[in-house]
C-alpha cells in the first residue's frame, strides 16, 4: 500500500517525465548563414551554402521537415559530385549539429528553466517514492513481484521497454531528432567541460543520475547486507567520478577524455587509429592513458580476477553492471534460467569476444601498415563499422538495456559483453572466488534462483552442496542476500579446493541422487 508521500512522489515523477518527452517538438528551426558557418567545415561551407539556399530563412515547425529538406539538399549535392567523379568533395551529413544550431523559439531560449524544473520533478519525485521504503522489513519477501505489471512483462513494463528502445534508437542512429534534449543539458555541459552538450553528454548525465537515484533504492532495499551496501556505493562512486566527472574535466583541460575504469574489449574503439593518434598528440599524459588502458586488461584482469573473481569489475566497477544492478534490479527475476539459454549464452558471448579480438587485430594492422585490408578482402574499416553498429549500438544499447523489462537486467552482460567473457574464462579456470553452499540447510524456497540476474539456477547447486563456479556469475551476492537460511556464502579462499562435482540433493537429514 503506497503512502501519501509515495503517491505525491510518483505523480511528480510522471509529470517531470511527461515534460521531458513533451519538449522534443517544442522548437522551431531556421537555417541561416550563421548556423552553417558554425557547423560546416570551411572547405565544404560554400558548397553546402549553395545547396541549401532555398531553405535559408524558412521557418520549420518540426525537426522532421527540417532534417528531411536538409538531407535532400545534401544528397542532391553529393549526387552531382559523384556524376562528375569528384568524390573527394562529398559532404558529410552534419544533420545533428546543423539541426541543433538552427533551433529557435521559446524552448531554446528557456532551456535552463526546463532543465531545473524537470530535474526537481523527476529526481525529487523518485526520492519521495523511494524513501518511505525503510518502513518495510528488510530483505526479500512475497511482494507480488510476478503479479505486478511493472515487473512481470505487464503493460507498465511494455511501456518502459518501448521508451528505452526508442531512446537508444534516437541516441545511436537519429540524434538530430533529440536536439531539444541536448539543448536541455547545454548549461551543465558548459559548466563541466566548457563546451556545448552532445548526445553522449546527455546519455552520460542521465546514466549517472539513474544509477545514483536507483542506487539509493538499492541501499534501502538491501540494508540488511553489508556486502550489498559496499558494492552499491562502489558502482555509484565509479560511475559518478571515473565514468562521468573525470572524462568531462579532462575535456575541459583539452586532454583526451577517457573513462579510466573502462577497458578493451568492452571499450572496443580503444585501439582505433583516431584514438591512438589523439593520445600520442597529447604527449606524456596521452601515453599514460594508452599504457594504463592496456595494462588494465592485460594485467589487471587476470590478477584481480584470480583474487576476487569477475565481481571486482562486473559488480563493483563496471558502468553496465552498475545500471543493471540499480535500474535493472526490479527486472532481475526475468532472466531466463533454462538450460537452452545457458548453452546459447556460451556460444554468443564467446563469439562476440572472438569478433572483438579479430576486429582489433585488423585495426592495428591497418594502423601500422597503412593497408586498408588484409589478404585483399578483409576490410578493417568495414569490420569495425559493423562491430560498432551491431554490437556497440544495437546489442549493448537497444537490446541490452532497452529490453530490461522483458528479458531481465543482464542480457548484455550474459550474451554480448566481450569483457565479461574474458573475465569469465579467468574466473572459471583460475580464480579463488566461488559461492559455497550448505545443502543441509537449503529449504528449496527458490529465492536464490529467482533473483539471479545471470540466469543461474542457484538452487540446483545449493541442493547438492556444490560450489557455484560458473563463468557467468558476476558475484553480485543477491542470491546470498535473499536466502532465508544463510546457505550461500561468497568466498575468496585458496586453502580448500572448489567443489564442482554434483553431489546428492540434501534436504534436512535425508539425501537422494537424481539418476541421469
TrEMBL record:
Pfam families the UniProt entry points to: Fer4_5, Fer4_9
Keywords, ordered alphabetically: 4Fe-4S, Electron transport, Iron, Iron-sulfur, Membrane, Metal-binding, Transmembrane, Transmembrane helix, Transport
SUPFAM superfamilies: 4Fe-4S ferredoxins
Family annotation (PANTHER family): FERREDOXIN-TYPE PROTEIN NAPH
Source organism superkingdom: Bacteria
Descriptive protein name: 4Fe-4S binding protein
The keyword Electron transport appears for this protein: yes
Any one of the GO CC terms: plasma membrane
Domain 4Fe-4S ferredoxin-type: 433-461, 464-493
Gene3D superfamilies: 3.30.70.20
GO molecular function, one term: metal ion binding
TM regions (residue ranges): 12-31, 113-132, 153-174, 200-220, 232-253, 285-308, 347-367, 387-407
Keyword Iron: yes
InterPro entries documented for this protein: 4Fe4S_Fe-S-bd, 4Fe4S_Fe_S_CS, Electron_Trans/Redox
Organism expressing this protein natively: Spirosoma terrae
